[in-house]
Fold this protein.
Amino acid sequence: MDQQQKFCKIERIGIVLEIDGDRILLEVEGKPVNVPRSKTADALVLSDRVHWNGSLWVKKEEEEVKDR
């Protein structure tokens, strides 16, 4: 039996609203989401657009944002 890894087809995109020590507050699909800092890229700043890469919230590059 062929066991292929399944990946989410929906890309989750958020905006960094607040950075507070070991937590980051994101807005995802219009809702606030508290995320542990350990689940985000190190260099995020307020207002960054981010996306879930399967293990971390990382900054979405400007070219990718324009394509949406």
Remarks:
- Helices lie at 62-66.
- The chain has one domain: 13-66.
- The first strand starts at residue 13 and ends at 20.
- The mean pLDDT is 85.
